[in-house]
């Protein structure tokens, strides 16, 4: 297997206008929490809350573009949203290979996204299969 148990990865993502507007353009999710500043503030947030599924897009990019092999596919993933993400947040992404099954070429990685305030905004696990 190309990946090794306990192997760690880091990357930085920014939720900028391009990412935010691109998500809305493609998926047409215009829920007020994500698009209306006043509405979001009235619900106790400091600003519009970014769509949680933007982070799933970052996970896809990580698996498809940042791993040392392109010969992988996602089998499953879970993500737990813990704190809101706002426009222009810079997120530090950390992932670690926590389990491997050589018999079926499957890796499990634990991951988290951390904002500039050092708060974990999301965490979870992603299971991928290596092809050789």
List the main descriptive attributes of the protein structure presented here.
4 helices, HotDog_dom_sf, 132 residues, Thiol Ester Dehydrase, Chain A, 27% helix, MaoC-like_dom, alpha+beta, elongated, single chain
Structure notes:
With 132 residues, the chain is an alpha+beta fold. The protein has a single domain, classed as Thiol Ester Dehydrase, Chain A. 27% of the residues lie in helices and 37% in strands. The protein is built from four helices and five strands; from the N terminus they run βααααββββ. Strands 1-3-4-5-2 form a five-stranded antiparallel sheet, covered by helices on one side. Strand 4 and strand 5 form a beta hairpin. The longest helix is centred in the middle third of the chain and has 14 residues, at 53-66. It starts with 7 loop residues before the first strand and ends with a strand. The model has no long low-confidence stretch (mean pLDDT 96).
How many helical stretches? 4
By CATH, the topology is: Thiol Ester Dehydrase, Chain A
CATH superfamily: Hotdog Thioesterase
User: Segments where pLDDT lies below 50 for 5+ residues?
Assistant: none
CATH class: Alpha Beta
Brief sketch in words of this structure:
With 132 residues, the protein is of the alpha+beta class.
């Amino acid at each position: 297997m190309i990946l090794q148990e306990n192997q760690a990865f880091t990357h930085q993502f920014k939720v900028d206008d391009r990412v935010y507007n691109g998500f809305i353009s493609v998926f047409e999710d215009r829920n007020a929490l994500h698009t209306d500043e006043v509405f979001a503030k009235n619900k106790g947030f400091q600003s519009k809350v970014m769509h949680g599924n933007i982070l799933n897009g970052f996970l896809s990019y990580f698996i498809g573009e940042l791993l040392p092999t392109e010969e992988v596919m996602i089998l499953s993933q879970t993500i737990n949203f813990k704190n809101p993400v706002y426009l222009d947040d810079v997120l530090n992404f950390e992932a670690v290979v926590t389990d491997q099954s050589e018999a079926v070429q499957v890796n499990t990685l634990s991951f988290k996204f951390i904002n500039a305030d050092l708060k974990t905004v999301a965490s979870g696990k992603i299971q991928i299969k290596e092809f050789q």
